């Protein structure tokens, strides 16, 4: 497991063995079962989750009970309610596991301490956060400027394995369409 985390970090910054030995204690391994909720909407957010194996989703549940999926996260991806995690506020999302999931988690306190001890980790988190923001920006732009069928084909291009791992009703929610509309796009 630790080799996966190290390889992920070293996609951006190189670490010596001693540096990685200083990084690793800041991350806590946690495993979760399929359907387990790891962050409840309106609760405080304790962790940022790095997924080693499995699949999670982040969704907002409206007062009428409708689920709006914001993000899917699979192996080598991060997921949390970033605003709540960094500001100590309540989550706007529920994050749950769509498969049995193995993660490394980090608290904000550990992240800040790690970045202070090892500035190259601050660079690592900056690059990851920026990439996440850019992906979200592209998603919003796609929503406001693309037809539903184009959003579906874009998802197929970007994450072809996701379609195999996630029920179509969730894909429809993620794309902002009904299940019936999605069925017109799929074989």
Description:
- This protein is α+β, with helices and mostly antiparallel strands.
- It has a domain at 2-116: Jelly Rolls (Sandwich), CATH 2.60.120.
- It is built from nine helices and eight strands.
- The strands form two sheets. It has a four-stranded antiparallel β-sheet with strand order 1-8-3-6. A four-stranded antiparallel β-sheet has the order 2-7-4-5.
- A hairpin with a 5-residue loop joins β4 and β5 (67-73).
- α4 packs across α5 (119-145) and α8 packs across α9.
- The longest helix is centred in the C-terminal third of the chain and has 27 residues, at 119-145.
- The N and C termini lie far apart (37 Å).
Fold topology:
Layout: H1 2-9, H2 17-23, E1 28-32, E2 37-39, E3 48-53, E4 56-61, E5 67-73, E6 78-79, H3 82-87, E7 94-97, E8 101-106, H4 108-117, H5 119-145, H6 148-158, H7 160-165, H8 168-175, H9 179-185
Helix pairs in contact: 4-5, 8-9
Strand content bin: 15-25%
Please trace the helix and strand order, writing H or E for each element: HHEEEEEEHEEHHHHHH
From the spread of the alpha carbons, the general shape counts as globular
In DSSP terms (H or I, runs of 4 or more residues), the helix count works out at: 9
From the 3D structure, determine the CATH topology of the domain at 2-116.
Jelly Rolls
Radius of gyration: 17 Å
Strand order, sheet with most strands: 1-8-3-6
CATH superfamily of the domain at 2-116: Jelly Rolls
Unreliable segments of 5+ consecutive residues = none
């Amino acid at each position: 497991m630790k080799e996966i985390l190290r390889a992920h970090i070293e996609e951006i910054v190189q670490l010596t063995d001693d540096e990685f030995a200083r990084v690793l204690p800041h991350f806590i391994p946690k495993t979760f079962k399929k359907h387990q909720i790891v962050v409840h909407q309106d609760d405080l957010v304790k962790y940022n989750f790095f997924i080693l194996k499995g699949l999670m989703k982040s969704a907002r549940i409206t007062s009428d009970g409708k689920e709006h999926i914001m993000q899917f996260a699979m192996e080598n991806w991060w997921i949390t309610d970033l605003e709540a995690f960094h500001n100590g506020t309540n989550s706007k999302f529920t994050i749950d596991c769509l498969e049995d999931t193995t993660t490394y988690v980090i608290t904000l306190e550990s992240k800040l301490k790690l970045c202070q001890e090892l500035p190259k980790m601050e660079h690592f988190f900056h690059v990851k956060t920026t990439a996440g923001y850019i992906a979200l920006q592209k998603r919003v732009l796609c929503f406001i400027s693309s037809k539903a069928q184009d959003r579906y084909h874009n998802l197929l291009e970007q994450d072809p394995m996701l379609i195999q791992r996630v029920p179509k009703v969730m894909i429809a929610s993620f794309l902002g369409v009904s299940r019936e509309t999605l069925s017109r796009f799929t074989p």
